[in-house]
What we know:
CATH class of chain B: Mainly Alpha
Strand order of the largest sheet of chain B: 1-2-3
CATH superfamily of chain B: Cytochrome-c3 Hydrogenase, chain B
Shape of chain B: globular
Number of helices of chain B: 15
Largest sheet of chain B: 3 strands, antiparallel
Radius of gyration of chain B: 21 Å
Helix content of chain B: 40-55%
CATH architecture of chain B: Orthogonal Bundle
Number of strands of chain A: 7
Strand order of the largest sheet of chain A: 1-2-5-4-3
Structural class of chain A: alpha/beta
Oligomer: heterodimer
Strand content of chain B: 5-15%
Amino acid sequence: MTTPNKLINDLRNLPATVHEVDYRQWGYHLDVLLEAGRVRGFAGMLRAHRFYLVFVSAVHTAPAIEIIYQFACYSRQCRILGRAAVTDNGTMPTISDIYDGANWHERETRDMFGVLFTGHPYLEPLLLPEEEADRKPLLKNGSAVKAADRIRRPNQAGIGTAEPHQGQERDQ
Amino acid sequence: MTLGTKNQDRHSFYLNMGPQHPSTHGVLRVLLEMEGEYILEPEPVIGYGHRMQEKIGESLTWNAFMPNTARIDYLSALMYNHGYVGLIERMTGIEAPRRAEYIRVITSELNRIASHLLWLGAFLLDLGAFTPIMYTFDDREQILDILEDVTGSRLTYCYYRVGGVSRDVDGTFVEGTRAFIRRLRSRFPMYDDLVTNNIIFIKRVKDIAQFTPDMAMRYGATGPILRSTGIGYDIRRNEPYSVYPEFDFDIPVGTTGDCMDVYLVRVREMEQSLRIIEQALDSLPEGPCMTKVPRRLKLPQGDASFSVEAARGELSYYLVSDGSDVPYRLKIRPPSFSNLSLLPELCRNMLLSDLVMALGALDLVIPEIDR
């Protein structure tokens, strides 16, 4: 099993911006900011580190929709939140060939936000009926869309001094 | 994943299982491409009960959404309550009194047992065994009576509050719960005789629908189906919340991950839940069950996540706030969603009659998948 420090270094080499955050306040340990092009590398690396996929979803923010990935691990306490803004034409590479479970999560995200996942094998409506497929119900209207820095913690950019989390190895 | 692309070189036909099939336990449709009695490709079709809970979550104040949490998975309503209040408490820094945390653990575990008892009866009913559900509903009824006394509802509880629970428990609750523990313990040997050692049951579930740790990781499966593969992953232990670290309990695991192991894991989990309840009743602290919470409480800007172990696996709430009292985004991650998504891989080339077992083992609650 890899140590958290090795994982953090691997993530930083992706490259990605990695913040260690206080689990008691945030409910996760690592906040990872990615570019859309790095998402597949991110998922592949977490697969190699034996993480499982908790969910894929999105947040409608300005300037672009952000896709949220949450991963956790069966063998030690470590929860990772990855976020990546969609590309200029509103797409995101799929990770459904790396994590099969992402298949449905990405279909749901396409239903709710209209994000197209490139390379997805079957991007059909999942929760919405076919005739409502373009409704995109979770998109916000006009002034309701907040800029990304309005939905982040005020000090989020400067984090990194938070106490390092204790990754507990557990016997299986 | 190939709706409408029929396998050309085989004599296959389509069969719709559901949306009103009794063994799908909710409005789930499984589109099956069949060859004789064998399934070539099963495709779950979901969304019939979609209520847009996440949109409701970002249209109401965080407090007004509370009753909705119980209606997502109506069989583990208290655990959905627990995850939501835990999330808001984490964001606002409010701490519930210790007595409230103990009451939460006791009632959540009662709710877990009620959910598992319903599953046990329904799973066997799917097999064609009509008798056990009569017994499990009899036991479950006792729990519903106990919970009705303190929460005011029998199914869709809205009992937890940010900062505590809405009503304190009394001596009647404690006595009633202790009597129930004695009762259920005395019933387990009967269930063993009736079900576990029944040769027809064993023949139907042994080596059927084998889950593997690798499959679980790729699909994000959690809960009893994950533990049946031998991975002892339980949020109550691996990412402790509330006062769970104070109790002594085991995480039952299986070895082969077949339907028999899933069955055994769930039955043993009920015994462990009884242990937790017993310890919590023994050391139930005195004091208030609710702390003071401002009437209009704004959620600080930023995001947070909170996970609990619901009856079917990991339930995760993820909330993004813009600093007002209405969440900017509320993501609800129900366990059954990921658990059901592995069905095509699990049930390819399986007999139709075994698919019923596999669906039963997943313990699906469709409204939580559709949300």
